[in-house]
Amino acid sequence: MKRFFSLILCLALAVNIASCSGKKEQPKDKDLYVIGFSQVGSESDWRLANTKSMVDTFTEDKGYELRMENAKQRQDNQFAAVRTFILEGVDCIIIAPTVEEGWDTILKEIQDAGIPVIIMDRSVSVDDKNLYLTNYGSDFLEQGNMAVRWLESETSSMSAEDNLRILHLQGTYGATAQLLRTKALEVAVSQHDNWEFAAQLYGDFTEAKAYEVVTDYLRNDKDIDVIYSENDNMTYGAMRALEDAGITYGRNGQVRIISFDATKRALQYCLEGKIDLCVECNPLHGPGVEELITKYRNGEEIPKHVYVEETAFTYSDLTQDFIDSREY
Ligand code: GZL
Questions:
Q1: How many A from CA of 107 to the centre of ligand 1?
Q2: How far, in Å, is the centroid of ligand 1 from the Cα of 231?
Q3: Which domain does 239 fall in, by range?
Q4: Cα–Cα distance between 232 and 237 in angstroms, integer?
C-alpha cells in the first residue's frame, strides 16, 4: 500500500514540475495545430484582405485550427483575446498589434505560458526582442520614402519661390504604419525649404473619419497642392470631401493625391487619373507567416524581422488587366 501512495506522490510531483516550468505541455495526440490570432479590426479594405489571407491559409484540411479575434482597433481587446488564447492552451499566438507601445506585460505572460508568438503586419516596441519569435510585415519607412521620392520627382521643376502645401492624413496614432509613413514625410518636409504642411489631420485609417476632418479643414482653407494619405480608405474620404468643396484632384486636378495600400479600388482610381501615386502595402501575409511557423515547428532558425516585397504604382504602370489580376 505504501508503494502505491509513493507512486501517486511521484506522479503528482512530476505533473506539478511540468506545469511550473512554464513550458506548455503539448498534447501528443493533437491532430490540429491551434493558432490564436488577434487581428487589429476591420477598419479598411487592406485589413479585410489581410484577414482573408490568414483565413484562407490556416485551414483545417491543412492541419490548423484558426481562432481569430477582431479587436475593433482597441489594444485592450487584444489583451483580452491573448489571455483567452493562453487559457485555451493554443499552440501559437499571432498578433497584428493596433499600436506599438504597451506590449511588454502581455508578451511576458505568453512567454511564461510557453507559447510562441509571431508579430504580424505592424510592430511592437518592447525592450526584450526575445518576447516574440519574429515580426512579419512591411517596411513602412521605405513605403513613405517611395512616396517622397515620387513627389520630389514630380515637383523638381518647381521654382524655389513656390510653396508646396501638403495636407497630411494620418492613420491610427502609434501604429507602425502611421509612425513610419509620417516620419518619411516629416523628414522630407524638413529637408525641402518650399514644402510645408497645410495641416496634419487624424483619419484613423477610416474613410468616414477622413471625410469628416478634410471636410472641416476645407471650410477654412482650400489652398492645398498635395494630399498624402496614409491609407486608401482615408483617401476615398478625402476625395469625397474635395468633390463636395468643388476642388479638382488627380493627374489634371489642383490637388495631387498620394495613397498607401494600393488596393484594387485605389489602383482603379489611379488608372482613371484620380489618384496619382499608389504605394503598395501587401496584406497577403498568410503564406509567409505559415512558412515561418513551419520553420519554427521544425526547429529551424527564423529571422527577427521578415519584410514583404512591395512597390508603387502610377497611371503609366497600370493596365486594366493587371488591376483585374490583383488578389486584393
Ligand atoms: C499596414 C496596415 C495598415 C494599412 C491600413 O500594414 O497596418 O492598417 O495601411 C490598415 O489600411 O488599416
A1: 22
A2: 7
A3: 140-281+315-325
A4: 9
